[in-house]
Amino acid sequence: MTGPQLEAHGVNVEFITRGGQVARALDGVDLRVGAGEIVALVGESGSGKTTVARTMLGLERPASGRIVFDGEPLSYSTRALRRLRRRVQMVLQDPAGALNPRQTVYESVAEGLRLHGIVAKDPERRTEAELVAAAMSSAGLRPPEALFLRYPHELSGGQRQRVLIAGALALGPELLVADEPVSSLDASIRGEILALLLRLREELGLGVLVVTHDLGLAWNIADRIAVMYLGRIVEAGPTEEVLQAPQHPYTQALLSVVPEMEELRPVVLTGEIPDPTRIPGGCRFHPRCPALQDGTAAAEGVDDRCREQPLEILPDDTVGHHVACHLARLRNSTGPRTSPESRSLA
């Protein structure tokens, strides 16, 4: 993997509720994404995925831990964040809400160019219109000039998503963070946008962190997958290994409802993700774990550990397959490796 990497090391993010309680939105997250690779961050709503994306872009400041970009800890000065956002761009989830309905397509794509003064710094001395047209073409909006004066309400959902991507590409970033980039699109358009992200990786060497609840999407696009639950990554590894041999019961449950997985019996999880102000002891998934509920964990002799013994933070290894689960650790001869900085859940 060459080029810059965006990394999270032991990141904790906390919010204070109206009642004065501390909600741990992220609780020891290790994750990295580099130029030229696609990493999928997967989990239910409320698992902390979007908070990870916002924190890695400097939009949220961690209570502890650090974000590192291109080998340097992230600085939160205005100038440093402007430099970061020139090189790392975010593609938001809802194009209808993200695009200003009063701005034309041209103005939406050109906005970032103007904010960062890209035209004045362009070594090829291209005009603003040329840079906008090039970004739109890269995003699959062709011919771009025919769309310059259109407004968001005149575009299809897929076209609006491409306008958001074009606005990010106009700055010439090295990494994209895409938050649920196809969740609001029809199935046929979803495939087109995913193919576009793969093409951008091949042609421009872009790295992409894709935030999604859909393991099927991750299977089609990602090189690596990190599965998140209640503020912490519980399973991570190369896509083929994680999805062909999922070890965490939570990953197995998410995978069982992917339409393509006809041979798997759907696993219906009971209850909701717990309140982040009251994270369960032991394995944080244990109140909803099918292996505990059906007696499997008890038969293997790990049920007490599941309820009481904390699990280590998974390392941000770009090669290995790791899982934070007492039952999986028992079944694996070696168990998951942990980083030197691994910490137990308080």
Automatic annotation (TrEMBL):
Protein name: ABC transporter ATP-binding protein
Keyword Ribosomal protein: no
Record GO terms (molecular function): ATP binding
Keywords associated with the record: ATP-binding, Nucleotide-binding, Transport
Family according to the record: Belongs to the ABC transporter superfamily.
Domain ABC transporter: 11-255
Lineage, top ranks: Bacteria, Bacillati, Actinomycetota, Actinomycetes, Propionibacteriales
UniProt-listed SMART domains: AAA
Matches recorded under CDD domains: ABC_NikE_OppD_transporters
